[in-house]
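Help needed: design a sequence for this.
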């Protein structure tokens, strides 16, 4: 490196969701309850489940239901998609991920803008 130059290091940026959960299991890391299945008021929007919260205005064709869901990735409540789930343990989450055909961020409304939304954010310095 030369004076004035810098670089960023993201040691786990290329880890998969499975890599992360296997590490959590191996290291016995405590996780917040939101990552595990819980019953919640939700509604379907554009093919994905979102939390029914006062800050989100429902469209006329949307109705609130109670479902067993968990978060695979967490962001702003208005765009964090929820996954229908029965996983109550890290081992069950790993089994669920192994069987899933939807990516970790597949339920996030903000990632539906384009197929390269996450990579576009990385290039723009978001991470």
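Sure. Designed sequence:
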């Amino acid at each position: 490196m030369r004076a004035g130059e810098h670089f960023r290091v993201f040691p786990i940026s290329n880890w998969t969701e499975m890599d992360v959960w296997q590490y959590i299991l191996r290291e016995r890391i405590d996780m917040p309850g939101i990552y595990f299945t819980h019953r919640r008021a939700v509604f379907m929007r554009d093919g994905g489940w979102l939390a029914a919260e006062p800050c989100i205005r429902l469209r006329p064709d949307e109705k609130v239901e109670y479902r067993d869901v968990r978060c695979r990735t967490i962001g702003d409540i208005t765009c964090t998609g929820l996954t229908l789930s029965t996983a109550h343990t890290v081992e069950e989450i790993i089994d669920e991920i192994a069987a899933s055909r939807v990516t970790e961020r597949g339920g996030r409304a903000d990632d539906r803008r384009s197929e390269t939304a996450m990579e576009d954010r990385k290039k723009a310095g978001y991470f």
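The first strand starts at residue 38 and ends at 45.
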